Amino acid sequence: MQRQAEVAQARMDSSLAAPASARPIPASDVMFKKTVWRAVDLREKQNRPMFSTGKQITKLITEAVKRGELQAYRSDTLNTPISAQEFFTNLSPTSTGGGGLTEAEKAAGFDQPAAADDGWGNDDGWGTPAPKKKAATKSTAKATPAPAAAVTTGNELLPNELYKLEIKEDVVFDKKRSRLYHDIQAITLIMPAKYNSLGFEKPIASFKYSDLARVFRAHPDEALWFNQQNDAQHKNLADAFDLWLFSSYITKVSNVNDARLEEVYGTGKKGLLAAQQAMEELIEFEYSLWSY
Q: Contact, 228 vs 238, CB < 8 A?
């Protein structure tokens, strides 16, 4: 357990020290930069190749976290790392139905394990005799350090239920190469609204794209972008992101109020039109940099 804790700490330190971008651009070469957030619905036809049955990108990410190969973060600022156990806790849908315990019942101790014997041979109150207490000895009375908690999973969402991603990218114009780059910084898993009792989408965890690209390259058989036209030309997910082989729409562009487009322009059709306008403005900016 100590070895596992040391490995986890080393992985966290390595991830914190690494840049978020898989191909960072030197600050001296950046002439223009705009941070953009994009929503990706993996159920769309264009996104199905990275969400094929048994090869879902969300399955690869959750299994990499479980194996200890991937460091999760609380938000896309990538400042606060979280443990694997906290990640799987966030991955479990919350429920407020009548089947759970109320706060008063939890305060009364109904969510605690059965009580031990009181020393007089009484049972635990439910008809089952409680185990006998053992007298404390010098060897057992000494305080021992608590072992590292193992990663336990419960009722977390299945990979095919995690069909929402959010991509944070820097749109950068590199003056040395004279072109515009979409430099992905982070990818966030989103819990769909129908699995959240509060009725809105909830971020589960964020990951540095450089860490994800490393995992994609290390597991080429699982990190598969499925080519429906030619089984001999499947691609790695890292290549699929580099080639922009997915569909997305803009949900936020960096602004002074840190407001999403739907907060400014409204939801539904107005929000989609605002996303389309934001995308066209970025394209027009790139075209306007040239004169003939």
A: no
Between CA 176 and CA 55 the distance in angstroms is: 38
As a whole number of angstroms, the distance between CA 117 and CA 123 comes to: 6
**Virtual CA dihedral for 17, 21, 27, 30, nearest 10 degrees?**
-170
Report whether 229 contacts 14 (CB < 8 A).
Answer: no
Nearest residue to 267 via CA among 249, 282, 246: 249
Phi, psi of 39 (to 5 degrees): -100, 135
Are 286 and 175 in contact, with CB atoms under 8 Å apart? Answer: no
Residue 158: both structure tokens together: 């299945």
Most confident region among 48-52, 106-110, 262-266 by mean pLDDT: 48-52
What are the strands of the beta sheet with 72-73, ordered from one edge? 81-82, 72-73, 202-208, 179-191, 164-174, 30-41, 249-253
Determine the Cα angle at 55 with ends 206 and 240, to 5°: 65
Count the neighbouring beta carbons within 10 Å of the beta carbon of residue 30. Answer: 16
Share of the chain above pLDDT 90, in %: 59
Among residues 169, 155, 243, 151, the alpha carbon closest in space to that of 206 is found at: 169
The answer to whether the CB of 230 falls within 8 A of the CB of 241 is no
Q: Give SS3 for 6.
A: helix
The rounded distance, in Å, linking the Cα atoms of 166 and 37 is 7
3-class SS at 117? coil
Q: State pLDDT tens for residues 163-175.
A: 999 999 999 999 9
Report the phi/psi class of residue 108: left, alpha or beta, with left for phi > 0 and alpha for psi in -120 to 50: alpha
- β-sheet bridge partners, residue 253: 36
Are 45 and 200 within 8 A, CB to CB? no
Closest CA to 219 of 91, 24, 83, 61: 61
How many Å apart are CA 155 and CA 173, to the nearest integer? 44
